[in-house]
């Protein structure tokens, strides 16, 4: 067998060599390549001679053995231009160092072929750092959470009548109160969904988060528009019509009890009789108190919502730009196309757009020279 025979006198000499016999080139596993010298360790040889007999393997281009008397191999090797070093932008130090555990490339016996080595963790825990896009997205989502929580707390206080004029607001502004409730609830839920996507680095959740930001924007604009329009155009006539035609007896009674008044203009103008509202009462009419409360509430509402619109536009803008960069992972974890492995061409090659075409041209030239070398060697052996 080959491993039992002496390499210098083996009858299995390489047919392409002209000096001492050597072994044929075979598809040896890369795991048996010495990372220091680039030589192949013959694992099948006896342990006593394993360290002394290193098979100098050059693959995948130079199929001839490393022989000083092989003039044809030396001549072809000198004519072959070396491949440029692969560009590896994901490394901090460029190509790395051959003496470092983080080495990423290895030169095989001085040839131009670079073999990628698997990254070996050095055991030192690395400090996880967030990208600037993730921080910016977190700040924007916090703004959304703040005004969503504020609106939700306001409507909860109103519906549960936890402040003095809550009953009048419920009776007098049902449409506006419903819009504010929907706006606060949706903004709050959207912000919680955003926090989930940010912490989990989940782009799918962040995509849903981006979609939900647009209904939030529509609700904020609707609250501002409804409150501004009602306050702008003849508020006094609208409130008088509301008291006379829209309110029922229970609504008028609730407003009178909450504002401590009787009737609209005075106690004879559509009053609702109660223990405090009767013909000889000393309570004033509800017009002034009701109109003042409604006007101030509408002004505060559309001012705050119109101020929130540019803030929400900023949140949408940040979410659209930063959701896909919540971490430093490229897309689904695949490298760019120009950095993918091409086994058919050179084994393992990484290139950038400026050198890829030159590298492929050099590979094709090497393959052509290799075929010519094989044909010439066969003719010499036959003769």
Could you describe the 3D structure shown?
This protein has 383 residues and is mainly α. The chain folds into two domains: 7-125 and 363-382, no CATH class; 132-325, no CATH class. It contains ten helices and four strands; from the N terminus they run βαβαββαααααααα. The chain has helices at 47-50, 71-79, 132-159, 166-172, 174-200, 203-232, 235-246, 249-259, 287-322, 356-382, and strands spanning 40-41, 54-55, 105-107, 114-116. Strands 1-2 form a two-stranded antiparallel sheet. A two-stranded antiparallel ribbon has the order 3-4. Helix 7 packs across helix 9 (287-322). The model is unreliable at 1-30, 43-73, 92-115 and 347-352 (pLDDT under 50).
Structural class: mainly alpha
Strand order of the largest sheet: 1-2
Share of helix among residues? 40-55%
Please give the domain count. Answer: 2
Report low-confidence residues grouped into runs of 5 or more.
1-30, 43-73, 92-115, 347-352
The SSE string, one letter per element, is: EHEHEEHHHHHHHH
Q: What's the helix count? A: 10
Major sheet description: 2 strands, antiparallel
Range of strand content:
under 5%
Report Rg: 41 Å
The coarse overall form would be rod-shaped
Got a strand count? Answer: 4
Ends distance: 28 Å
Mean pLDDT: 74
Brief account:
Keywords: Membrane, Transmembrane, Transmembrane helix. The chain contains 10 helices and 4 strands.
Topology:
Layout: E1 40-41, H1 47-50, E2 54-55, H2 71-79, E3 105-107, E4 114-116, H3 132-159, H4 166-172, H5 174-200, H6 203-232, H7 235-246, H8 249-259, H9 287-322, H10 356-382
Antiparallel strand pairs: 1-2, 3-4
Helix pairs in contact: 3-5, 3-9, 4-8, 5-6, 6-9, 7-9
């Amino acid at each position: 067998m080959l491993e039992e025979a002496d390499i210098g006198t083996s009858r299995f000499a390489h047919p392409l060599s002209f000096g001492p016999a050597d072994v044929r080139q075979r598809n040896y596993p890369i795991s048996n390549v010495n990372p220091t010298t680039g030589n192949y360790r013959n694992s099948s040889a006896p342990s006593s001679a394993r360290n002394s007999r290193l098979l100098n393997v050059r693959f995948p281009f130079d199929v001839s053995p490393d022989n000083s008397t092989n003039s044809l191999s030396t001549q072809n090797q000198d004519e072959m231009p070396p491949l440029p070093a692969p560009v590896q932008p994901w490394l901090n130090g460029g190509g790395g160092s051959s003496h470092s555990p983080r080495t990423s490339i290895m030169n095989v016996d001085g040839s131009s072929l670079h073999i990628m080595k698997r990254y070996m963790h050095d055991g030192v825990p690395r400090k996880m750092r967030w990208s600037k896009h993730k921080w910016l997205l977190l700040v924007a989502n916090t703004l959304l959470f703040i005004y969503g929580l504020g609106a939700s707390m306001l409507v909860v206080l109103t519906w549960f009548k936890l402040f003095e004029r809550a009953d009048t607001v419920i009776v007098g502004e049902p449409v506006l109160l419903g819009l504010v409730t929907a706006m606060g609830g949706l903004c709050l839920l959207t912000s919680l969904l955003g926090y989930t996507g940010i912490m989990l680095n989940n782009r799918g959740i962040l995509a849903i988060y981006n979609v939900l930001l647009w209904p939030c924007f529509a609700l904020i604009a609707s609250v501002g528009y409804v409150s501004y329009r009602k306050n702008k155009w003849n508020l006094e006539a609208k409130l008088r019509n509301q008291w006379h035609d829209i309110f029922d007896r229970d609504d008028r009674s609730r407003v009178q009890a909450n504002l401590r008044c009787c009737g609209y203009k005075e106690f004879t103008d559509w009053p609702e009789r109660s223990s405090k509202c009767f013909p000889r009462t000393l309570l004033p009419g509800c017009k002034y108190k009701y109109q003042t409360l409604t006007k101030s509430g509408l002004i505060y509402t559309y001012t705050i919502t119109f101020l929130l619109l540019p803030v929400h536009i900023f949140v949408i803008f940040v979410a659209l730009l930063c959701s896909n960069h919540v971490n430093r992972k490229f897309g689904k974890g695949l490298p760019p196309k120009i950095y993918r492995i091409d086994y058919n061409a050179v084994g393992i090659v990484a290139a950038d757009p400026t050198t890829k075409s030159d590298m492929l041209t050099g590979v094709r030239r090497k393959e052509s020279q290799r075929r010519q070398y094989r044909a010439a060697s066969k003719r010499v052996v036959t003769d």
